[in-house]
Amino acid sequence: MTSVSVDEAMRRAIELAARGLGTTSPNPVVGCVLLDAGGEVVGEGFHAYAGGPHAEIVALAQAGERARGGTAVVTLEPCDHTGRTGPCSLALIQAGVARVVIAVPDPNPVASGGAATLRSAGVRVDTGVRLDEAEAGNVAWLTSMRRGWPYVIWKYAATLDGRSAAADGTSMWITSEAARIDVHALRGTVDAVVVGVGTVLADDPRLTARNLRDGSLAIRQPLRVVVDSAGRTPDDARVRDGAARTWIATAEEVGAGPDGGVDLPALLAALHQRGIRAVLLEGGPRLAGAFLAAGLIDKIVGYVAPRLLGAGPAALVDAGVSTIAEAIDLEFIDVTQIGPDLRITALPRKREG
Ligand SMILES: NC(=O)c1ccc[n+]([C@@H]2O[C@H](COP(=O)([O-])OP(=O)(O)OC[C@H]3O[C@@H](n4cnc5c(N)ncnc54)[C@H](OP(=O)(O)O)[C@@H]3O)[C@@H](O)[C@H]2O)c1
Q1: Which residue's alpha carbon is at the smallest distance from atom 33 of ligand 1?
Q2: How far away, in angstroms, is 198 Cα from ligand 1 center?
Q3: Pocket test for ligand 1, best of 152, 153, 159, 164 (most atoms within 8 A of CB)
Q4: Do 280 and 222 contact (CB within 8 A), yes or no?
Q5: Cβ neighbourhood burial of 167 (10 Å; 0-12, 13-18, 19+)
Q6: SS3 call for 178
Q7: d(Cα 124, Cα 16) in Å, to the nearest integer?
Q8: Are the CB atoms for 114 and 78 separated by under 8 Å?
């Protein structure tokens, strides 16, 4: 076996961490690569699910005695506390690891401190290797831990002329099967899927993550959330079918916002309390408008179909913009063709003042 650089090992650790996306909440995704004293890879691991072994523990188990005098390369600062599992800092010290290379410091006050513990035990600790890449791979968890509410992705489907449904209200299916398969994969990476009651009444969606070809459900289902001030979700709505957990979030339970709808910051705070770190807002246009007007969207994923309707509801309603100077400016970060459709990913630009 040939030796690899710490930088190369971190690239691999970030790749490993991504395997946990969608299954680790409320924990972060973490990857770890263990190099022996000669720089050879002797262990690899990632955190697969909350309550399961941390990435470092998996890698240490693989490495065994070869970890002694070696280097642990890990995407997030090793934890320093005993939760459902013991502190990783201690496990690394006990295994005799000489150096720990960390990409991102842990912002969680409960678990942080691993770097200090390692240093005080004489372990060399370096941080910041491939920092931006590791941050990007863990953006939902890091963002939600830093500010106390989940990372929100607004996903919508529209025609090239920006219509989210036809004039008669029909909206199934604006985009292709390939795009819908992509959406189900996206649902599999989040902890909750959120819609307004208007979408439930119009489309009666299931909102489960499933295989579109055979209908089989993904093992882990996001929490289904209906934002429904007055509790208008029908008893026989598909979201109540028992295929996944569902929360009908009413104004009575969450609190009412200034316009009488469900208070959206309070909704997100309540979701955070439930361990939700990443949310997929799936509409419809009115709820998406309210989220955008409140500055609560972190990322936008738009599926644009090569079709025109010329009439029918817009993809977005009332986002608090009345003049061009108030437009919500975006930065496109990715454009990918999915079957006949385009998937456009954008980030809202921070507003001045
Ligand atoms: N193409 C797409 O991607 C897509 C996705 C979803 C839906 N759609 C289409 O969108 C249409 C439904 O649109 P819609 O705008 O009525 O649906 P919506 O945005 O899903 O629901 C809006 C409703 O949510 C409730 N709500 C509660 N709190 C709110 C708050 N703080 N802010 C805003 N709304 C709040 C309100 O009803 P209460 O006052 O009763 O609580 C409001 O009328 C359907 O035709 C559907 O097919 C398209």
Answers
A1: 287
A2: 4
A3: 164
A4: yes
A5: exposed
A6: helix
A7: 23
A8: yes
CA angle in degrees (0–180, nearest 5) for 264-268-274: 145
What string of DSSP letters covers 212-262? TTT-PBPSS-PEEEEE-TT----TT-GGGSSSS-EEEE-HHHH-B-TTSSB
Residue 56 is a catalytic residue: yes
Q: Which of 15, 40, 44, 56 is catalytic?
A: 56
- The Å distance, Cα 286 to ligand 1 centre, comes to 5
Q: Give the H/E segment covering residue 133.
A: helix 131-137
Provide the token pair at 331: 């930065």
Instruction: Calculate how far, in angstroms, residue 317's C-alpha sits from the geometric centre of ligand 1.
Output: 9
Is the separation of the CB atoms in 160 and 308 below 8 Å? yes
pLDDT of residue 40: 97
What's the predicted TM-score (pTM) here? 0.91
308 backbone φψ class: left, alpha, beta (φ>0; ψ -120 to 50): beta
Return d(Cα 353, Cα 340) in angstroms, integer. Answer: 40
pLDDT tens digits in sequence order for the chain, 353 residues long: 689 999 999 999 999 999 998 889 889 999 999 999 999 999 999 999 988 999 999 999 999 999 999 999 999 999 998 777 779 999 999 999 999 999 999 998 777 789 999 999 999 999 999 999 999 999 999 999 999 999 999 999 999 999 998 998 887 789 999 999 999 999 988 999 999 999 999 999 999 988 888 889 888 899 999 999 999 999 999 999 999 999 999 999 999 998 899 999 999 999 999 999 999 999 899 999 999 999 999 999 999 999 999 999 999 999 999 999 999 999 999 999 999 999 999 999 976 54
Q: Which atom of ligand 1 is nearest to the CA of 174?
A: 1
Contact criterion met (CB below 8 Å) for 45 and 56: yes
169 Cα: distance to centroid of ligand 1 (angstroms): 13
End-to-end CA distance of the chain: 55
Q: Is the CB of 226 under 6 A from ligand 1?
A: no
- How far apart (Å, rounded) are the C-alpha atoms in residues 32 and 45? 5
